[in-house]
Amino acid sequence: MAEWITSTMESLDYWGIALLMFLENLFPPIPSELIMPLAGFTIAKGDMGFVPAVLAGVIGTVLGAFPWYYLGKAVSEERLEHLADRYGKWITVSSKDIKKANNWFSRHGVRAVFFGRLVPGVRTLISLPAGINHMSFIPFVLYSTIGTSLWVIFLTTLGYLLGDNYELVDEYLGPVSKIVLLSLVIWFIIWIVRKRNRRYE
């Protein structure tokens, strides 16, 4: 995977970044945690500019969010979950992933699109519940762009600072993302318990 990402970026330059980030949103197994840090490393060598690389990453990501968004609009949640359980293994997406993304959207509303772009494991699929719940297109693009920009800048900066060790971003961010997700689940459970306790007071 790392070799393919490297060769694509070397041969296509900024177009390669946009293409890879577009595909990363369609196929979750492709990690943005490798793509943008590699771009940051390339910037550190003087072979790319920071702003164009970030713009390419943001544009590719936002464009890659549209297919999931329109799929959510066109197909019911139940049908999507059935399809995910039947064919999702090819892109590592299950009905549980769809439920998790939809629950995230239900809890946070349109803000979920912004925050979801910053959480690995949620960021790719958050477009689905936005479509399922018929979120307006302009707010969807706006929140997606802002959240994506922060994520892309963060990863690119890490790659720039780490230099030759840019691959450490993917190595260490994986466990960190799991901690973030666990923390969010714990916070949500506490929130539910407190809300129920208030009802009985």
From TrEMBL:
The chain crosses the membrane at residues 12-30, 50-71, 140-163, 175-193. It is found in: Cell membrane. The keyword rRNA processing does not apply. It is a multi-pass membrane protein. Signal peptide: none annotated. The keyword Membrane applies. One of its GO terms (cellular component) is plasma membrane. Residues 30-160 form the VTT domain. Keywords: Cell membrane, Membrane, Transmembrane, Transmembrane helix. Belongs to the DedA family. This is Alkaline phosphatase.
